Amino acid sequence: MVNFELLKRDGLARICQLTTKSGSIETPALLPVINPKINTITPRELKEDFGFGALITNSYIIKKHQDLNQQALAEGLHKMLDFDGIIMTDSGTFQSYMYGEVDLTNPEIVEFQKNIGTDIGTVLDIFTEPGWSEEKTKWAIEETLVRTEEACKLKGDMLINGVIQGSVYPELRTYCAEKMATMDIDVHPIGGVVPLMEQYRYAELVDVVMSSKMGINPSRPVHLFGAGHPMVLAFAALMGCDLFDSASYAKFARDDRMMFIDGTSRLKEMETLDCNCPACKDHTLESLRNLEKKEREKVIARHNLYQITKELETIKRYIREERLWELVEIRCRAHPAMLNGLRRFEEYIGFMELHDPISRNGAMFYTGPETYNRPVFERYHSRIMNRYVPYSDRAVLFSDSPGKPYSRSYSEEFHIARKNGYTPVVVTPFGPVPAELDEVYPLSQSLFPMNTDRETEERSLSLTMEFLDKYGFKETVKFENIEDTESMEYDGDLLRAKAVSSYQFGIPATKALFRGKIEFVKSRSNDRIRNVISDGEHILSMRAGDGLYTLKQEGAVRIAESIPSPFMRVAVNDDSVPYVSKGRNAFCQFVIGCDPGLRPMDEVIVTDRNDKVLATGRAMMTMKEIMSFKRGIAVKVRSGTSDEA
Ligand code: GUN
Ligand code: ZN
Q1: Are 83 and 156 found together in one domain?
Q2: 373-393 pLDDT, tens per residue?
Q3: How many domains are there within the chain?
Q4: Contact at 8 Å (CB) between 229 and 252?
Q5: Final residue of a domain: which of 346, 377, 403?
Q6: Which numbered atom of ligand 1 lies nearest the CA of 122?
Q7: Cβ pair 603, 504 in contact under 8 A
Q8: Which of the chain's ends, N or C, has fewer CB atoms near its CB within 10 Å?
Q9: pLDDT of 602-617, one tens digit each?
Q10: Binning pLDDT at 50, 70 and 90, where does residue 102 land?
Q11: Within this chain, do residues 306 and 390 fall inside the same structural domain, yes or no?
């Protein structure tokens, strides 16, 4: 079984550690393609100069070549290539797609890969082309499934690639992935996508990758077969692809083509060489053009590899900073076809929202109308429409303000509105923001340009109308039109405390949490709510960073007593009980059940198998991920006694 551990995530995108018998790599990672017959850059250079810990080569080419075949069998693939990192081999599928039938069988090529010491071998799958009919695709999937099952039996201690096929038919992709989820497969390449990428059909690429991801066992690495241009890597990583491979770095170099983050340029058409990578830095355009062919090819190949490694580092940085959406939105402006891809994410918003963290560190930046395809907008909309309890049946609308939170910039106005029986609602790019919720992530933790675009204006307005309609507000006025005549009593802190709880945990949980006398511990510096005390017990703490709650032990007990499992629960087995109850983290392999509605970073209640509360903490993963991963942290447990507020 593959050894794959989640270290850091940003939605579906993730940084993981992949370990094989030849060592470990951190993903997202790209495996340069080595043609065993042509060595533009040697495997040793790939490792020592560029830091590539894994590469991919083709076992079919080796098997067909008499000398290589014998050498590989005699001394092993690692010695033959002079590479002690991870070696993945492909099977001949791509050759059969390019040049017609290959004269070897699946068991033959799987056995051969095992015999030459490959770390990760590949089934002889059938390359399902974008132009194929549904019937033909279905047949190819069934045949690929049979061969994959066969390869799982033959693989021994070699890891095996189970390739997801299905042409451009999303249902067939999901079907193929679901069938493979129960097989003993280690890595999932998504296959048959090279023509889509060559033809810049990025919207269909999104269909293919997302529908595959929906069926794939999430604890296995996903490899996007043939994706090697730096331009597409961030985009693919956002969809949860972990591995890539590139033959283009060498193929393009052969044709004097240089890869850049925003496209590919032909050396003879370039006006300047604006690159200071280690390969280019001692060259001018002139000097590069004047190099002898072989030498030039090598410089360009090295340049191409530097572009790839640089982008991979950038992607990892953005994942660590939880800002990968921003990078992708920027990258997708390199070509209109990529914008097609970015816009297609709208179709997969539900799946993406399930994987999107409840809050992120730092503020989110708006980059343009495509930003509205991010799952945070979907989540806010669905929660405000389903988890809000209005304070009154009259609303006052306020326009968006750069001074956030709004309760600070409109503090006097909100007060006047409330004492006259109005609910203050700010019309924002997120849609309607009732005053009670203005500090919740990402409402206060977001930046939009001051002069808004038409999409933003139309969206703000139509979402606000939907909201006013849904909650049956009888009267909606502008602040200037309020007659300040009344002096109703209201408790702004209590309104906020309950509204945030409903938004975060739902209305039933809020009823369970808030009982008896409610008191607040507030920050002395800014008067914000810190702790919520109900009936004398500390049930919740509000975090300053994201305006959401940390659940305390007593709060957890109240929810567990009134709402049946699995709501907000992660249940662990008996072995884990002593550790978790002392405040140690809950690891995936000990979890026996959990809430299917968990989002990453959600507050959860860790229980034993009889639903006894052991601890509270934050989920690191979705249910499906927790139940699939065999290692890694499922819940970061907070010690029951220490107060984080
Ligand atoms: N290389 C590029 N695409 C594919 C594919 O679909 N299957 C295999 N085995 N290799 C590939
Ligand atoms: Zn360069």
Answers
A1: yes
A2: 999 999 999 999 999 999 899
A3: 2
A4: no
A5: 346
A6: 9
A7: yes
A8: N
A9: 999 999 999 999 999 9
A10: confident
A11: no
Together in a domain, 411 and 328: no
Q: Which of 465, 481, 497 is the last residue of a domain?
A: 481
Q: What is the pLDDT of residue 101?
A: 78
> At 54, which CATH number?
3.20.20.105
Residue 310 and residue 237 in one domain: yes
Residues 7 and 133 in one domain: yes
The reply to whether 543 falls in a domain is no
Distance 360 CA to ligand 2 centre (A): 34
Within a domain: 80: yes
How much distance in Å is there from the Cα of 182 to the middle of ligand 1? 21
Measured from the CA of 190, which atom of ligand 1 is nearest?
6
pLDDT of residue 557: 96
Q: Residue 191 in 3-state DSSP? A: coil
In order, the DSSP letters of 440-467 are STTTSSEE--SS--HHHHHHHHHHHHHH
Q: In angstroms, rounded to a whole number, what is the distance separating the alpha carbons of residues 519 and 162?
A: 57
User: Which amino acid is it at 165?
Assistant: Q
Domain extent at residue 12? 3-346
For residue 538, pLDDT beyond 50? yes
Which residues have a catalytic role annotated? 90
The verdict on the CB of residue 163 being under 6 Å from ligand 1 is yes
303's tokens: 């340049």
Average pLDDT, the chain: 96
Per-residue confidence at 618, pLDDT binned at 50, 70, 90? very high
Distance from C-alpha of 27 to C-alpha of 9, rounded to nearest angstrom: 11
| pLDDT for the residue numbered 39 | 83
How much is the average pLDDT of 566-584? 96
Position 645 scores a pLDDT of: 34
* pLDDT at position 42 over 80: yes
- Same domain for 326 and 264, yes or no, is yes
Q: What angle, 0 to 180 degrees and rounded to 10, lies between the N-to-C axes of helices 202-215 and 170-181? A: 30
State how far the Cα of 75 lies from the Cα of 580, in Å rounded to an integer: 49
CATH number at residue 424: 3.40.50.10630
Confidence of residue 641 (pLDDT cuts 50, 70, 90): very low
Is residue 11 domain-shared with residue 151, that is, in the same domain?
yes
Contacting residues for 253 by C-beta, under 8 A, at least 6 apart = 40, 297, 298, 300, 301, 303, 304
Query: For the ranges 230-234, 239-243, 636-640, which has the lowest average pLDDT?
Result: 636-640
Atom of ligand 1 nearest to the CA of 125: 9
Mutation test residue for ligand 1: of 88, 93, 208, the one with most atoms within 8 Å of CB? 93
Residue 584 per-residue DSSP state: P
Q: Label residue 2 by pLDDT band (50, 70, 90).
A: confident
Provide the 8-state DSSP code for 547.
S
In a domain, 606, yes or no: no
- Say if 584 falls within a structural domain: no
Q: Whose CA is nearest to atom 8 of ligand 1?
A: 93
Determine whether the shortest distance from the Cβ of 571 to ligand 1 is under 6 A. no
Q: Measuring from atom 6 of ligand 1, which residue has the nearest CA?
A: 191
For the cut 50, the answer to whether the pLDDT of residue 643 exceeds it is no
Confidence check: pLDDT of 314 > 80: yes
Q: Quick one: 455 and 326 in the same domain?
A: no
